[in-house]
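Risk register update: the risk that structure generation would not scale has been downgraded. Supporting records follow, first protein first.
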Amino acid sequence: MDYQIKNIKFVQSEADWRKCPADNYPEFAFIGRSNVGKSSLINMLANHKTLAKTSSKPGKTQTINHFSVDNRWFLVDLPGYGYASISKTMREKWAKMIDNYLRFRENLQLVFVLVDIRLEPQQIDIDFINKLGEMGLPFSLIFTKADKVGKLRGTENVKQFCKKLLQTWEELPPYFVCSAVDGRGKVELLNYIEQINEVFYNSINPVQE
């Protein structure tokens, strides 16, 4: 049976990872270049139009935002990287906040890196992915805005992005093609999260033979 989110609620926003909620749930972080459609994607996954604040102006998300999902896992909305109409000092502050969260949050299971499928490979995305590799963090890719590009063009852009990654990676991570408008990729993405959750809970509560 396909997994669907039944209950999701906002827990808190923090600029300091040490003040984040107790790490008793597996955690999945969502991050991408500013204006990649992250908030819209989160709202689509949650069946909630206004859960994550959307804006045509990049830089809307400015803190580490935790949402409790089905009393089973945390969805974490992180600030975007790259362009935002903020000062250099603030960008550096955000970068440090994100870096500390990624390095030290022990229950973080996976980082979803969102990539705009309409664009050719962007070096800023590649650099961030390579940084995750240096940290030893597992990640998957979500190609967003699939409804805004033709199928052939979208497929070619995904292919080119993967080709670019293989210049520095031995193998590709799992990836999903999604649309916040028509729900494309939602079932596959949520099932993937649930599979990881099952492994997590089985590891702390092994089935007795």
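Supporting record for the second protein:
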Amino acid sequence: MLLLIATATDLGTGKVRNRLICLGLFTGTLFQIWEFGLWGLFLSAVQILFPVIVLFLLFLMHALGAGDIKLFSVIGCIWNLKFLCYCMFFSFLTGAVFSLGKLLYQRNLIARLMYFCRYVKNSLENKKLGVYDRQSDGKQNTICFTTAILTGFCIAMGVIM
């Protein structure tokens, strides 16, 4: 339910509300403590921090929003690290399919691939990550990644269960 609300909010406003994230983190931490006692507090902290650490580089590049990363943290906090990894894998796979479809529909796949190659070349030459300019030609090239997270979550549920 939380993912559905987050996706609907993100589609409508372009943001995932922090109140929703806090509710998910609070609930997940309570679940972990209820199941594992004080050890659950440590587990929830690890499962909250895992997506932040793993995805921080994408956030610095502006390739992924903070709300998306926090949503992964909520999933990790409520479920477990194994499920979170499955969910992240399927979310990024789904996101890649959504992005490819959008680029093909917009007929700018080649232009965006060329821009990506220039970005990588400049980053390597300057030994510094710059901001990946995904909006140079408007928002037409962006996807609402919470839809990919929701889809990845559903796929992971089918794989794990």
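DSSP finds seven helices and no strands in the chain. On this basis the risk owner (M.S.) recommends closing the item.
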